[in-house]
Structure prediction request, 195 residues.
Amino acid sequence: MRKLIAVLLITLIAIFSASAASVNLAINKEYIFKDNADPSYPDDGVKLTDGKFASIGYKSPGWVGTTSKQQVIVVDLKDVYQIENVASNFLKDFEAGVYIPNGLALAVSEDGIKWTFINQVAFKYRELPQEKMITFKYTFEKVNKKARYIALKAGSSVWLFMDEFEVWGDSSSKQKAPNGVFLDEIEFDFIDFGS
Ligand SMILES: [Ca+2]
Prediction:
C-alpha cells in the first residue's frame, strides 16, 4: 500500500511538472526584421520560428543573412504569455565575414506600442568563442514579464546570420492580448532597448 501511494505521488508530481513545463512559444509564430535579409540569404518568413537549426557554415539554407549594423527582430506570439527565457542562435563563419553579434538587447510589449526594456549585453571579442566556425546561442534568462511581442536588437559589424528565435514560457499562462498592432506597423525606433 505504501508503495502504491509512493507511485501515485510520483505520478502526480510528474503530471504537475509536465503541465508547468516551459515550451518554445515562438514556434510557427510570425516575426519581422527591421532591415530586410540579403537576397542571397533570404528569409522565407518561417526560418526563425520553425524550430530547426541550420548546419554550421554560411551556405546552409537555414540561415537568414543580413548586413544591418543594428538589426531588430520582433516576434508576435498573438496572445500574452508569461515569458521566462528568450534565446537567439547565430553563426560565426570567420572566413566568410559572418561574426557573432557584438551586442544584444531585449524588450517586450503587450500591445506592440508600449515597450519594456529587459536587458542588454555587449560582447567583448575575447569573451566569445575563438573557433573560426561555430554557432553561438545566447539566452536572456528570467525575463519574468507578460508579453505578446518580443523584440531583439543585434549589433553587427559585417554579416549577421541567424537561424532561430526562441521564446520560452508556460503555455498555460496564455491570456487574450489587448488590441495589438500588426507586425508591419511596428515603429522600430520607439522600442526601448535601454540605450
Ligand atoms: Ca530555424
In short: The helical segments are 2-19. The radius of gyration is 19 Å. The beta strands are 22-24, 30-33, 64-66, 70-93, 103-109, 115-122, 133-140, 145-155, 160-170.
